[in-house]
Amino acid sequence: MAEQKKPPVSSKQELWEKNRLAFAKLAAVTLSELNKAESKTYSIYTKEDYRTYIENPKSNEVNLRNMSRYFYLVSTAYRRLCKYYAEIPLLYWTVIPQTDLQKPDNPDKVKKNYQKVLTLLNNMNMQHEFRKLLTVAWREDVAYGYIYSSTDSWFIDILDPDYCRIVQVEDGCLNFAFDFSYYDRRSWKLESADPDLQRMYQLYRNDIQNMRWQLLDSKKTICIKVNDDSLTEVVPPMSGIFEDLIDLLDYRSLLRNREEIQNYVLLLQRVPIDDNSEGVDNFLLDMDTVIQFDAKLQASVPDQVGVATTPMEITPIQFKNDTPEVDLLSKATRSMFDNAGTSQMLFNSDKSGKVGLDASIHTDEMMAFEVMRQLERWVRRYIKQNVSGSKFIFNFLDISPFNKDSFISTQRDLATIGVPNKLTLCAANGMNPLETFSAAYFENDVMNIVDSFVPLNTSFTQSSAESEPGRPQMDESELSDSGMQTRDDAENTDTIET
Over the range 382-419, which residues count as b (16 or more CB within 10 Å of their CB) and which as e? Predict the structure, then answer.
């Protein structure tokens, strides 16, 4: 019997198989070695350490970065401050085709390319992936990421900044080189890394001296720097408050020590002395007896009770601080937020003052949106690298949890006068363009919800022919006494005229 030949594999099947394998590999990117316990230790930093590092920040980038990570770990205030700036932008976005007014493209072609762009951007899950980058950037100044993607998945692997270096600006975006000696002690991680990284590591192994640092593919990398006005130095944006954070931690330790001291009891045993003797050290008890009873007493008291034995008079001297302990801690906290340029009222419900708070938030929004502009420009470059045939205008909206309501109100007012901003208005409510079009198609064309959901018959849905013109009558509970009297007088007048 002749062997049956398999049907030829089509290009679509090859592409599907390639994407399937890519996604399977993507889902298995290794972050830690299972058979090896990893540990991370942090140093306890002093003000002298910080002053030494900040004198030469270029040579102490690693030390300053580790210092920021330490405070991010041990200080809730510092963590909330970094997260606050990272989470100000809601990362709501819009994208529209760039139209040539003299030679507009064919509508079908525009729709086809627009669908490609929307699918690409929706697959990126920018609200989640970019939030990781922003958090790292506000903590360490720079976030380096490597992109793993398939037709239905996309995520950013945050790279170790100790092995990354900014070396190039392309189309307004930062490109960086990677130190491939990183994998010398992490071969287990290389096994699931992108094939390009595996190939470049082999180049490094073949020429360790010249191929240690290699520029990564800009199509697969992303780099965001908070202090983009100084690309040669990497200094954590909040480094100016490191001394205040050290004070804050010291005050907390001091308060804990005070509480322990206040709960501590000292039992003092005085060895009796023969007052009638003229000699020196004429104790009425021998040393063996004193040591014996001292040991028995120490064995019978709890840890919070100390025992001391002495023949001398003891006079306690106290260095009393009249400043309440809570005030010391509050003062240190205020100093930290003041030096950070952020209002403490954002994190302390005991404070109030809306005008000052609003002004502080607006300033913070300006700083956060400035970093967001880098993400915006990177996405525009990413679109150009992955979608050909048309140009598109991508924007992140300058919208935050604090100005969301006013932003929507402004867009609604613009829509009433005919401004073409319906996609912006939907985006301001958290719906990206693909979600907007998908929801409109599903509700109107598939489910026909427009005809199925009939509005209630109210004054807002009735025409003037069906109801009396004018403003709807207010409920009696909303009227004042004078308002009720005015209504009664009007009703009495209508009755008399009738």
Answer: bbeeebeebebebbbbbbbebbbeebeeebeeeeeeee
DSSP at 94: E
Outline where 263-315 has alpha helix (H). Answer: 287-300
3-state secondary structure of 208: coil
- Amino acid 16: pLDDT: 47
Beta strands per DSSP E along 392-479: 392-396
- Range 292-302 burial, b when 16+ CB lie within 10 A, else e: eeeeeeeeeee
Torsion-angle region of residue 56: left (phi > 0), alpha (psi -120 to 50) or beta?
beta
Provide the β-strand partners of residue 492.
none
Residue 178 contacts residue 216 (beta carbons within 8 Å): yes
The answer on pLDDT for 206 being more than 70 is yes
Q: What is the pLDDT of residues 292-340, one digit of tens each?
A: 777 877 777 776 666 677 665 555 555 555 555 556 666 667 767 776 7
Amino acid at 384: K
CA–CA distance, 25 with 33 (Å, rounded to integer): 16
**pTM (whole model) above 0.70:** yes
Percent share of the chain, pLDDT over 70: 68
Question: Position 272: which residue type?
Answer: P
Q: What is the pLDDT of residue 41?
A: 73
Helices (H), 191-324: 195-206, 242-262, 287-300
Distance CA 429, CA 92 (A): 8
Does residue 484 carry a pLDDT above 60? Answer: yes
Whole-angstrom CA distances from 362 to 263, 368, 486 are 47, 10, 45
